[in-house]
Design goal:
single chain, mainly beta, four-stranded antiparallel beta sheet, 45% strand, globular
C-alpha cells in the first residue's frame, strides 16, 4: 500500500486478500484469474485502483473486489509495473520478452505502446521519485537502460556483461536524487551503484 505500511495485499487460492495489521489478520476481497502472477501495484492517488499481472494485466477500481483485463499481450518476470509518483495517473509496464514499454495516462484504464527499451529482456522499471521523466530499467545480463523523457527514448547506461543473467531490481535513493542502485540475479550476484542519476555505474 503506497500510503499505509500496515496494509498488505497478496493472492491466495485465486483470491485477493488484504491485511490492515501487517499480516496478522486477513480479509477476503475478490477472485483473480489463474495465471503466473508477477507484480501488483496500488495507485497512490486512489487506493481503490489496483493493477496486477496474472498472465495478462488486470485492473480493479473497487479495492480488489472485481478485476477487468486491460492489457492482454504483456509478459512479466520482475518489477516492471510501476506508478509514477510525480504523476499518479501515469503507470508504466515493460514486456519481459520484447522489451516493449507501455504507458497508461489514466491510472491503468487504457494503454499505449510508447517505445522499446532496446535491451535483452526487461526485468525492472523504476521512475525517479523527484525528477520528472527520468526512468531506469534493468534488463538481461546486467544491462541498464535510462530515459529522461518519460520513456519515449532510451539509452544504454550499463552494457551487458558476461557474469550475470538479469537485473531484477533498480531503485532510486529517496534521500539523494543522484544515487541509484541495481541488483543482479544468476551467475555472479552483485550490486551496482550510480552517483550521477544513472548515467554511469560501478560495482
Amino acid at each position: 500500500h503506497p500510503l499505509d505500511n500496515n496494509v498488505v495485499y497478496t493472492i491466495q487460492s485465486n483470491t485477493l486478500i488484504v491485511s490492515h495489521d501487517r499480516g496478522e489478520t486477513w480479509e477476503t476481497r475478490g477472485a483473480v484469474p489463474a495465471g503466473r502472477r508477477k507484480s501488483m501495484v496500488v495507485s497512490p492517488a486512489d487506493t481503490n485502483v489496483i493493477i496486477l499481472h496474472s498472465d495478462v494485466l488486470l485492473r480493479s477500481t473497487d479495492g480488489g473486489f472485481t478485476f477487468n483485463e486491460v492489457l492482454p499481450d504483456v509478459i512479466m518476470n520482475g518489477e516492471t509495473l510501476s506508478f509514477d509518483l510525480l504523476n499518479p495517473q501515469t503507470v508504466y509496464v515493460a514486456d519481459y520478452v520484447s522489451g516493449d514499454f507501455y504507458v497508461s495516462e489514466d491510472a491503468g484504464a487504457t494503454w499505449n505502446l510508447r517505445s522499446n527499451l532496446g535491451t535483452p529482456v526487461a526485468c525492472s522499471v523504476s521512475p525517479h521519485p523527484t525528477i520528472p521523466g527520468m526512468i531506469l530499467a534493468g534488463a538481461g545480463y546486467g544491462t541498464i537502460a535510462r530515459s529522461t523523457d518519460a520513456g519515449f527514448t532510451w539509452s544504454i547506461v550499463r552494457e551487458r556483461d558476461t557474469y550475470t543473467l538479469e537485473t531484477p531490481k533498480v531503485e532510486w535513493d529517496p534521500s539523494n536524487p543522484n544515487l541509484a542502485y541495481a541488483s543482479t540475479y544468476g551467475g555472479v550476484f552483485s550490486c551496482f551503484r550510480s552517483h550521477d542519476s544513472g548515467e554511469t555505474w560501478e560495482n
